[in-house]
Structures are given as structure tokens and as C-alpha cells.
Amino acid sequence: MVRKLTDSATDRSETSRLVEAIGRLLPALERFNRYDGPDPAAQDRERWQDRLNQPLPEHGSGLDDVLSELAEVVIPHGLRNGAPGFSGWVTTAPTTAGTAASLAATVAGSQRWWLQPFNYLESVALRWLADLLGLPSSWQGTFTAGGSSANLVALGAARQQAFERLGHDPARGGLPSLPARIYASTEVHHVVIRAGAVLGLGREAVVGIPVDAGGRIQLDDLRRILEEDRSAGVVPVALVATAGTVNTGAVDPIAPMADLATEFGSWLHVDGAYGLFGRLDERVAALYEGLERADSAVVDPHKWLATPMGIGAVFVRDRSLLGRAFTLEPAAYLEGAVDSEADISSPFDSFGELFHDFNLDQSAPSRGAVVWAVLREIGADGMRQRVQRHNDFARRLAELVGADERLELLAAPTLSICCFRYRAPGIDDATLDRINAEISHRLRAETPYVPSSTRVAGRFAIRPCYINPRTTLNEVDGLARSVREIGDRIANEQGVLKSA
Ligand SMILES: Cc1ncc(COP(=O)(O)O)c(C=O)c1O
């Protein structure tokens, strides 16, 4: 007997009123996007946490309440890493085209598969990115959730190749018990070390090779360790060249690393999550020589391209390796979903370009639509100008630092990062570390300038990284000025300037 259902309603979730709902948020978003006045998130912390810290509602309070809470509580206290003075990390807030495309993809392209524009734009955007970066046109790419997964996917292909060469299929049979290593500089991003763990090689399998004074991998040490390992029967899974280290923006010598990779029978991977875009500045383009000889490269559109968060990209010379490493098994629930390509009468008759066989996600948003939108808006030339402008900012800051006897350059900029510190004569390094840490803290509390920090040769460094399209020269000059002023103030407060 068929049960009788009387309620004709579909669900309590609103599935229409989109224009009204987004319209309700827009004034709050516009206001947020201006980054006016002091950032209220820290001061108002108790208030917004109290408002949000509610038990799971048994009965939902409806869309209007959600919109009010978003507009009044959440958005105004959001993360201001898009403010012009923010130069910390290697991420920023998205620009308008990317935000709009992201909304479009959320609503009208909620899966990147199937025969529809949001699938097609994955391919178009990957091709555009490869063109922009001068990657060989035969390389194939796929979007990922960010640099972590992009590096993991690339190194998954490297692992596949290394063990296939020895007659094992690691994706199918697991890893044979053979010692295997990934070689990278000590400046490698820690997500590469985690990738070693996730790929079953182990974190300790990622060997940290010392760097030279410019933060670049020492080739002699790399060669020596590769030779020792070869004698010991270690499988060289990959050499990782970082093209734009997160600490100082150094670019490893790719061409000599390509020579070593060939000589030792290893994969060459280039982690350019931040710095591959640096190649667009012709003044430093030569640093990327040899890139076309790599086996894989990673770049993050959610960094310098300023797309919304959650977009990395990986390109490989031989995508069949990605396929063997990451393909999905045939699934009964997809049986009959896709008929012959010749008989397509619905978008659901074709997967479109298959991306889920080449990376970690099955279901995924169309990241390509977002990258496409940003590149369509500003073009290759706009991106070239952005990269040059930001590299100029770092150089300008280095000049300001050089011209001030109380500031010290700790790493000359290669790309758009400038590492420096406050320094007054007669103060030891430990005290300078404490003073510069306090300067960083007061910059965040008292000024619009928010760089991050790092250590360069053991010293605490103030580290702006310019990728934010909203930043102007004013913020660059303001940062140098503020570090000097705050540094003098702290040194006076602590009485350490007396000895000067
Ligand atoms: C060189 C490099 N690799 C990888 C990553 C990790 O990328 P994500 O944070 O997108 O996972 C970063 C992030 O800053 C990076 O600078």
C-alpha cells in the first residue's frame, strides 16, 4: 500500500529569494570591504562569541535570522587580511570578479563535472594559467583546494613514477619496504613535509638540504646526499625546488636541480604556490630557467592572483601518472550514468572533462570559473603589472631600510617579500628579537600595517609579503616609518638605547 503524504511543502530551507537574500548582505559586505576604522574583531570578541555560541536549534529560526546574524555579527568582524596595510602571510581577500564568479559557481555550477560551462571553464582556466606562466602546452593541470593538496597530488605522481620504475604500483599494492626520500631545502614549505607523511613515505623521508645565504638550496650538499643515498639503495622519489619560499621568497636553482634529477633518475617538482607568478616579472624571470624541464609544478591562484580562498593548481608533464595514482574505481552508482559520447542529449550524459580521476576530490566546486573570471578581467598584462608592482614594493622597502640606521635588512628581496628588523647599536640579538616581536605586536594593535614575521638566520624578522592588490606605496612607506618609530619607543621604554 502506498503511504499517503499530505504535506506538500518541500523543505524548510529557502530555495528562492536569492536576490533579496544576497541584497541583504551586500551593504555589510561593501562596508567590510572598505576596511574603514579600527578592526573591531578583537575588541568585540566577547560580544560576537556570545551571539554565535548558541546550542543547536531544534527548530530553525528561518532565513531572515540567518541573514541578520551574518550582516550584523559575522561579516563586520570578519578577517581583514584584504586591508591595504595587511601584508602578512601569502593570502589576501578576493577581488570582485573572483567573488562574483565564486557566487555564480556556487549557485549555477555546484559540481565541476558534467557537460556544462563550469566544467569547461576548468579546462580554459588551466590552459590560461599555463600560458600565463609559460608552462609547456603539453603539460596538463588540475585544480585543487590549495597549495597543500596541489603539492600532495604532484608528489603522489612522483611516488607513482618512482615505484613503477621498480616494478611496483604503490597506488594499488601499497609501498614496498624500500627506503625512499624526497629532497628539498630546509626552507621548503611544511606542507611538503606533511605530504611525505600522507604518501606513506614518512615525514622523515623529506630531507632538508641546507641553504646558502640567499635562502637557496645548496647544490653541493644536495649532490652529496643524493650520492650517499644512491650507494645506500634509497629510492629518490622527488627533488623539490621551491620557487618562492614562504620565508624570504628565494627561488631554488631549478635548472641545476633538473640536471641532478636527470642524473639520479628522480622526479623534479617545483613548488611555486606563492612564487611561480614571480616569473611574470622579466627582471627576475631568469631565476625560473629550467622550469620546463620539471615533471610537475604547483601554483596557487588564491595567493598572488587574489582569487577567493580554496584554489590551488597542479600541472604535470605526464597526467597518466596522476591517473594511475588517483583514479577512482568504477562505481556501481554511476553505472549507466554516462552513455556513449555520440548520444549526448543531456548535460548529465557526459562527465565533461574528467578531473576527479586526477586529484583528491570527487565532488568539488568549479574553481576554474573563478580563475577564468579573474584572468578575463585583468589579462596577462594586468597580472604582469601586479607582480612587478609588488616586487617593486619589496625593493622600495629594502631601500628605506637601507637608508635608516636603525633598520636592518635581513634578506634582500627576490620577489615581493622583504625581511628586516629594527636594530639599534649596542643591543644584542636576543634583546633585538624581543624588541622586534613586540614591534610586530604593536604594529597590529596600533597601526594599519600588519606584516607577518619569520626567522632569518636565526634572527626575528618582520616580513611583509606584497600580494594584496589593494596595497599602495603609502602602506610600504608607512610600515618602514612605523617600525622605526615603535622600535625607538620600545627601546626607550626598556632603557636599552642608553648604551648607544
Ligand atoms: C611555497 C608554498 N608552498 C605551499 C604552501 C601551502 O599552500 P596552502 O596554504 O594553499 O595550502 C604555501 C603557503 O603559503 C607556500 O608559500
Q: Short description, anyone?
A:
The protein is 41% helix and 12% strand.
Commentary on this structure:
This protein is an alpha/beta fold. It contains 14 helices and twelve strands. The strands form three sheets. A seven-stranded mixed beta sheet has the order 2-8-7-6-5-3-4, with helices on both faces. Strands 1-11-12 form a three-stranded mixed beta sheet, with helices on one face. Strand 3, helix 8 and strand 4 (206-209) form a beta-alpha-beta unit. Helix 1 (18-34) runs parallel beside helix 3, helix 6 (147-164) packs across helix 8 (190-198) and helix 9 runs parallel beside helix 10 (254-264). It is globular, with a radius of gyration of 25 Å. The N and C termini lie far apart (94 Å). The site of pyridoxal-5'-phosphate has 15 residues, from helix 6.
Give a quick set of tags describing it:
500 residues, alpha/beta, 3-stranded mixed sheet, 14 helices, 12 strands, binds pyridoxal-5'-phosphate
- Which compounds are bound in this model? pyridoxal-5'-phosphate
**What is the alpha-carbon Rg in Å?**
25 Å
Determine the fraction of residues in helical runs and give it as a percent range: 40-55%
**Which structural class matches the secondary elements?**
alpha/beta
- Main sheet: strands, sense, barrel: 7 strands, mixed
Read across the widest sheet, the strand sequence of neighbours is 2-8-7-6-5-3-4
Integer average pLDDT: 95
Total helices: the number is 14
Q: How many DSSP-defined strands? A: 12
Morphology? globular
Assess the beta-strand content as a share of residues.
5-15%
Uncertain residue segments:
none
